């Protein structure tokens, strides 16, 4: 099993963000992939997406700006099925690679 950790620091938003110059709260974000050839390939694609700033976005939540997942789907749990962003979900790797 692969566990990806994304550490997003708190900072101030930049031009192009919803509220430039506003502070936002970061956090630790985890994603899970199977440890097989397809999972490792997907991990590399997710890394490239992260390096290009496509993984996260800044959103207002209860009057506070914070980092949240962007439009690329991530499995944030090992279980609970598709409805809870977990496994089993037989289509996930195919779907996320299409998005990437």
TrEMBL record:
Gene3D superfamilies in the record: 3.30.390.130
Top-rank lineage group of the source organism: Eukaryota
Recorded metabolic or biological pathway in which this protein acts: Protein modification; protein ubiquitination
One GO CC term on file: cytoplasm
EC number: 2.3.2.27
Pfam families per UniProt: DTC (PF18102)
PANTHER family, per database record: DELTEX-RELATED (PTHR12622)
Annotated Deltex C-terminal domain residues: 5-97
Family membership: Belongs to the Deltex family.
Listed GO MF terms: ligase activity; ubiquitin protein ligase activity; zinc ion binding
Record keywords: Cytoplasm, Ligase, Metal-binding, Transferase, Zinc, Zinc-finger
InterPro entries reported in the protein's UniProt record: Deltex_C (IPR039396), Deltex_C_sf (IPR039399), Deltex_fam (IPR039398)
Any one biological process term the GO annotation gives: Notch signaling pathway
Catalysed conversion reaction: S-ubiquitinyl-[E2 ubiquitin-conjugating enzyme]-L-cysteine + [acceptor protein]-L-lysine = [E2 ubiquitin-conjugating enzyme]-L-cysteine + N(6)-ubiquitinyl-[acceptor protein]-L-lysine
Subcellular compartments: Cytoplasm
Protein name, as recorded: E3 ubiquitin-protein ligase
């Amino acid at each position: 099993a692969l566990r990806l950790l994304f550490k997003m620091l708190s900072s101030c938003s930049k031009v192009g963000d919803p509220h430039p110059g506003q502070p936002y709260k970061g956090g630790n974000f985890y994603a899970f992939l199977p440890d097989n050839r397809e999972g490792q390939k997907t991990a590399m694609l997710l890394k490239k997406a992260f390096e290009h700033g496509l993984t996260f976005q800044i959103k207002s939540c209860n009057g506070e700006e914070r980092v949240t997942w962007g439009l690329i789907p991530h499995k944030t749990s090992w279980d609970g099925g598709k409805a809870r962003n977990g496994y089993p979900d037989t289509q996930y790797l195919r779907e996320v690679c299409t998005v990437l």
